[in-house]
Amino acid sequence: MHELKSMWSTVQPANPGELAGARRRLLDGMRPRRRFVTAPRLLVAAGVAAAVAGTALVVGNGTPAYALARSPDGTITVTVNELRDPAGLQARLGAAGVRADVTFLAAGTRCAAPRFAAVDATYDGPPATGPDELRAVVNESRSPKAATVTSVRTIRISPEHIEPGETLVMEFRDNANAQAPWRLGTWLAQADTPVRPCTPVEDTG
Question: Measured between alpha carbons, how far is 164 from 99 in angstroms, rounded to an integer?
Answer without folding.
Answer: 9
